[in-house]
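Async update (no meeting this week)

Hi team, since we skipped the sync, here's where things stand on the single-chain job. The sequence we agreed to prioritize is pasted below, unchanged from the tracker. I ran it this morning and attached the output directly underneath so nobody has to dig for it. Comments welcome in thread, and please keep replies under the output.
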Amino acid sequence: MWVDCYPSEDTNDSEGGEIMRRATNPTRKFSISIPESTYNLLDKTLSYDQSRSAFIAGAIQDKLSKIDNLVTIHDVRNLSLEARMKWVMNHEDVDASLKAMLLHLLS
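Output:
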């Protein structure tokens, strides 16, 4: 017996079974290409009963949440001078020579 998992409204199957409700966050199928070494590592990492799709969706969510939490240059403009300097000195894109130059200019 086939049951539509995403019906347009609540329905009963013809045999009096459970009501199937629309998912609050339905999934979408798409195709990606990854290096074979990454695929093999993923295959070795996950056990037989773990979902590859769930793992990849979780990894994407983690990556996106880190992007959402990044401080933007617009956020930095609203900081005090001391807070700006702390941000610059701790920012991963600022190399040692730029840090030294900034410290020299400000001392």
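Quick observations from my side:
The radius of gyration is 25 Å.
The mean pLDDT is 76.
Reply here if anything looks off.
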